[in-house]
Amino acid sequence: MRAEPADRPESPPAPFGRRLCEVAESRLAGGYRIFTLIDETGPVPAPGQFFMLAASGGWAGEEGRPYLPRAISHARFQEVPDGGMRLDFLIDEVGPGTSRLAAMKPGDQCWVAGPFGSRFSLPRQLNEDAAGAILVGGGIGIAPMAVLRRELVDRGIPSRSLLGFRDQAHSGGVEELFGCDEIRLAFEDGSAGHKGYVTDLLLQLLEGDDSRSAAVYSCGPPAMLEAVRQICLQRDIPVELALESPMACGYGACFGCAVPKAGGGYLRLCIDGPVVRGDGIASAMAGEPAVD
Amino acid sequence: MRAEPADRPESPPAPFGRRLCEVAESRLAGGYRIFTLIDETGPVPAPGQFFMLAASGGWAGEEGRPYLPRAISHARFQEVPDGGMRLDFLIDEVGPGTSRLAAMKPGDQCWVAGPFGSRFSLPRQLNEDAAGAILVGGGIGIAPMAVLRRELVDRGIPSRSLLGFRDQAHSGGVEELFGCDEIRLAFEDGSAGHKGYVTDLLLQLLEGDDSRSAAVYSCGPPAMLEAVRQICLQRDIPVELALESPMACGYGACFGCAVPKAGGGYLRLCIDGPVVRGDGIASAMAGEPAVD
Amino acid sequence: MTDLATDICGIPLAGPVLNGSGTFDALAARRVFGDALVEEFPFDCYVSKTITMNPRPGNPPYRLWETPSGMINSIGLPGPGVDGFLERDLVGLSELGVPLIVSVMADSAEDFAILVEKVAAREEVSGIELNVSCPNVHSGLIVGEQPSETEALMKALRPLTSKPLIVKLTPNVANPHEVALAAEAGGADSVSMINTVKAAAIDPVSNRAWLGAGAGGLSGPAVRPIALAQVRAVSSVVEIPVIGMGGISDAESALEFILAGARVVAVGTENFRDPKAGKAVTDGLPAALERRGFGSLDEAQSATLA
Amino acid sequence: MTDLATDICGIPLAGPVLNGSGTFDALAARRVFGDALVEEFPFDCYVSKTITMNPRPGNPPYRLWETPSGMINSIGLPGPGVDGFLERDLVGLSELGVPLIVSVMADSAEDFAILVEKVAAREEVSGIELNVSCPNVHSGLIVGEQPSETEALMKALRPLTSKPLIVKLTPNVANPHEVALAAEAGGADSVSMINTVKAAAIDPVSNRAWLGAGAGGLSGPAVRPIALAQVRAVSSVVEIPVIGMGGISDAESALEFILAGARVVAVGTENFRDPKAGKAVTDGLPAALERRGFGSLDEAQSATLA
Ligand SMILES: Cc1cc2nc3c(=O)[nH]c(=O)nc-3n(C[C@H](O)[C@H](O)[C@H](O)COP(=O)(O)OP(=O)(O)OC[C@H]3O[C@@H](n4cnc5c(N)ncnc54)[C@H](O)[C@@H]3O)c2cc1C
Ligand SMILES: Cc1cc2nc3c(=O)[nH]c(=O)nc-3n(C[C@H](O)[C@H](O)[C@H](O)COP(=O)(O)OP(=O)(O)OC[C@H]3O[C@@H](n4cnc5c(N)ncnc54)[C@H](O)[C@@H]3O)c2cc1C
Ligand SMILES: Cc1cc2nc3c(=O)[nH]c(=O)nc-3n(C[C@H](O)[C@H](O)[C@H](O)COP(=O)(O)O)c2cc1C
Ligand SMILES: Cc1cc2nc3c(=O)[nH]c(=O)nc-3n(C[C@H](O)[C@H](O)[C@H](O)COP(=O)(O)O)c2cc1C
Ligand code: FES
Ligand code: FES
After folding, report:
1. What's the fold here for domain C6-56+77-196+223-302?
2. Which of A256, B8, D49, D53 could link D22 by a cystine bridge, Cβ 3.0 to 4.6 Å?
């Protein structure tokens, strides 16, 4: 056990440029969609990292949008025996970009750049006393949580996942991406699991637990992330959040993805994040598009 | 027989607005492509008329083009027993618009406005002494010629078709759109028929013929049209040409489709054409995009 | 159904959707579409193509170039001249069943005055738009580039008629609000904006300028963000109403202009893609207003942008 | 393989493709892509993000808005300030293996002078670009809008260095060629253009201005036709070379700028879509030149547009 929380594991450099990857599959997952790309040249992405994606044909609807690539976290990867990787993405169709990605069919080509951004730390790197990890995911934000959970399972590190959803339509992918071990669900509409917010589950857990041994990870809607952040900050529990912000490039070129830092100023979420420490930012709600 | 060449037959008004039509078929035709739309509400289009077409999904490639609809002549129509019409279009893929149209698949929807523009006159309307019609078509310009020929066949008016092509790749649709009666082909590369220009065939015909009884119709590349026009003007033979020009709207709104008139000034090709009398314009080459 | 009735400079309108001058020839459209054009007329007010003193043939071809999400035109104001227009066209336009605004443009203040007097004298005409901003006519100074010129022109024209005078602004200036303020100071009842943005294209085959006139004006969704910025900059300083346009393609984008400060909007290039685009905008407005939480058009018109 | 070697203001270049200032952070890219960034550096000359006197945090979010075929940015020149830049960043940038142009901007002629002197003193720097045109900083007067101001600024800065001084022009003026002529008269070695076009967007949910700073600048293919017109207007009157940019997305569009009169070109927004966009442009140039009938880059550079 180290005296100081160490740095996060390093992520390998992304291949320079963008590359075409073939769509292997696309399927509905509740109200969301999961599609699979075959990436033959990229390195294994780390939990929390994301890709910039753009369908290679018809990337532009009736009106010249989508125009920029879209930032999408991977939701799972699997190395393929004959080289390369299967990358799964969980998509919520909220606009022209996500809709165009969701409309890709097997055999279509997709531009891929990445993996980009910072990864989640391991629990002991976040908190030297950590006994395991608490993962708090919401809606489409369960994708990076699923990747982190798999890594923890592989490393034999205990984790518990708390997943919150508005309703069944916003819970797509849970069955496919999560094992059934140690998962607790909350639905705002009460259609399954706990009726209410996932933060209720987190509070229950932290009350029962020794807070000093907790390491919390979260990804989801801004309001949820901010609630998780506040809960943890108040209890001095180290927490890492995977944030969103409008991105044009994903690799530090445009300075567009600004998120206010705790001490003033802004970080570039694509290279200084998307995974940030809860105490490193001014708010989890300030750098986000005003989506509900 | 009337003393004066009469006006062209009237074409019915186009339905106001644009409408979605389903793609019923799309097939290769030599180097071109023929696709079929089911038009349930439009009137029967007349020979020479055209439609403004835009695929309803992904009308915009990587870069926001195509943006405007594209002017395309119909190449054939067939009334469908249970109402509506099958409209065939012959497409030469020269840019983003024609490529997107050619990529439409059965079941896709296409925005359609029209039929627009003027139609070809009947031979006796063009020349009171006309014994029949001489149709001179080239490349993609065989589409309106095919429609005119069918109408003449239906009306029992004799016609001879002279069709010229650069090579086999630029002769798509001939077999499908033309009967085998009275057709003579010219290929610049000598791969079939007469080796050379279709205007050679026209000259042969006019030499053998009594020019006074000729009525010539033509559609094809600008240089061919201008040659046909000069041949006819020099011999005082009435000729109608179906021209092209860049169009934004197709219904007289934008004033973009200007073609120089014989006496100075410009006509709007979409409403004063696309079928114009040879002596009505300054040149068949002035209003065309600089395509080869 | 939300009531969309409104007005511009005292002209009552059944809804807030006009056409952009020069983007819809109602007489040609009637020839093409028949009486359905009148029965389902897509605009709440019709703005004529810009009329000049003398007949003009317009610019040599090519006049059009498609661009990413837009187009360049270099039409050059072809038309019958004011007398031909008043004699032949105005009767047909008065049958459209909506108020009529006539757009005029001239090379000099004197000619502008003649045009305004002739046009204003006709009872069919509800308002006059002064096109001081066309990028496609080589008339030397573009009045609309200089606030002082614009104000002087307005002061000369204002006494000639009590009908609304609308100044069509050019976007090709550093500070459109200065020109707008000058128009207002000179007595304009409204400003309309934006006209097209100066643009050029190169022939892909001959390596020459594509447009017959060398350059032209950009329109369509590509310019919408520019238009929104200018409408906002102008509407926040003038008291007179703004007619907003530039890349409006649906109800959502029309509403953006109203939120940016326009009182009413005009549809231009989108008419070329859809002859009934004006109606599509109007039909979509109630739902668009509701999506953004407005109970009425008026609420959106009076919203101020933070 | 066509030789693409050329030069700008005497700086020899292996090819004619630069990056637009502020659209490619080579240091961040090296962190992300590793040494491949240097080995396959996509530009023939690197232009830094605009550097200011003091460190700046940049504008509050949101800073981006996607538009039809383009985007609006309102970044607000975040950066370490000139001293931080010279101390920390310059070393890394000098490892890129291409000539380096540093872009600077200040609120006053005095500060501009300090920046120019400090930057020019460093041997790693081949040229200096003066950003007198950023729409995203509230510095009162935008020097680049006034020919007289531009000329005065150039006259003040010219004696300070013999290194090339490039003036980055704003497109948001009626007559960019007047500003360009003034820059030339004041001693500029080159003008680069266009910077972004003033633009705005409305939040689809809150009905407020979307951008944290209220408005921003439009870039990408949407503005290409505007940029081409301005490059043409400027290059036909100035003697100094023009660095052309605005919506360049491939070799074909790069060549259009050269035909419009630019000597070399810069790729901006397209970098966001493809980190190697600069290289894609360069790689496509020989074929694009050939398609248009040019035997060499030089032939295209000396072609004059009819
Ligand atoms: C690191 C990271 C990882 C992500 N991972 C995922 C993921 O795994 N799955 C997933 O589905 N999403 C993910 N996202 C979110 C995704 O990138 C966005 O939802 C996507 O960019 C939206 O694009 P769109 O075109 O579909 O919608 P947009 O039209 O961009 O709309 C999305 C919202 O953004 C706002 N907006 C921003 N710009 C505009 C504009 N120009 N016009 C209109 N509205 C605009 C609006 O409020 C709108 O509701 C991630 C984002 C980041 C930064
Ligand atoms: C009345 C009429 C009937 C027609 N009938 C048919 C038909 O039946 N079948 C058929 O295939 N075609 C037909 N055409 C031609 C067809 O409309 C054009 O070929 C089509 O508009 C080309 O669009 P595009 O996007 O494919 O190519 P574009 O990219 O538009 O290129 C076509 C050519 O136009 C020039 N051009 C014009 N604008 C641009 C631009 N913005 N960028 C680049 N190049 C440009 C170029 O020289 C280019 O080579 C007809 C045209 C008219 C007017
Ligand atoms: C083909 C065409 C012709 C135009 N003619 C005129 C005109 O005669 N007078 C005028 O004031 N504006 C004219 N305009 C400008 C439009 O009225 C409008 O201001 C501009 O196109 C921006 O709106 P849009 O993007 O919706 O087209 C014309 C625009 C186009 C595209
Ligand atoms: C995100 C972004 C940041 C920019 N930052 C700067 C800058 O710091 N200094 C500058 O002179 N231009 C800046 N520009 C302008 C570009 O250098 C270029 O002039 C403009 O974007 C047009 O080119 P494009 O359409 O290829 O992007 C910036 C543009 C963008 C999109
Ligand atoms: S998305 Fe471009 S800098 Fe972060
Ligand atoms: S195409 Fe618009 S007027 Fe003819």
Report:
1. TIM Barrel (3.20.20)
2. D49
Which are the contacts of D143, defined by CB distance < 8 A and separation ≥ 6?
D132, D149, D150, D153
CA of C212 to the centre of ligand 3 (A): 18
Q: What subunits make at least 3 CB pairs under 8 angstroms with B?
A: A, C, D
What is the token pair recorded at C80? 């019958």
B8 within domain boundaries: no
Query: Any idea which ligand is nearest the CA of A244?
Result: 1
Domain count along chain B: 2
Contacts of D145 in chain C (CB under 8 A): 174
Do both B191 and B262 map to the same domain? yes
Range of the domain at B100: 19-116
Taking CA–CA distances from C248, the nearest residue in chain A reads A63
Nearest ligand atom owner, CA of D272: 5
ipTM of the complex: 0.94
- For residue B64, what pLDDT is reported? 77
> Which pLDDT tens digit goes with each residue over D236-280?
999 999 999 999 999 999 999 999 999 999 999 999 999 999 999
> Which of left, alpha, beta for C34 (phi over 0: left; psi -120 to 50: alpha)?
left
Q: In what order do the strands lie in the sheet with A275-277?
A: A194-195, A183-187, A159-165, A133-138, A216-219, A239-242, A275-277
Domain shared by A29 and A79, yes or no: yes
Report residues of chain B scoring pLDDT below 70.
1-10, 61-62, 180-181, 209, 287-292
Q: Which residue has the tokens 């005065």?
A: D152
Predicted TM-score (pTM) of the model is: 0.95
**Structural domain boundaries of chain C?**
6-56+77-196+223-302
Ligand 5 is surrounded, with C-beta below 6 A, by: A 247-250, 252-257, 268-270
Judged against a pLDDT cut of 50, whether residue A5 lies above it is answered with: no
Quick one: A187 and A170 in the same domain?
Answer: yes
Q: How distant is the alpha carbon of residue D242 from its chain centre?
A: 11
Distance in Å from the first CA to the final CA of chain D: 29
> Which tens digit of pLDDT belongs to each residue from C190-216?
999 999 999 999 998 888 888 888 889
Residue B292 falls inside a structural domain: no
CB spacing of A63 vs C222 below 8 angstroms: no
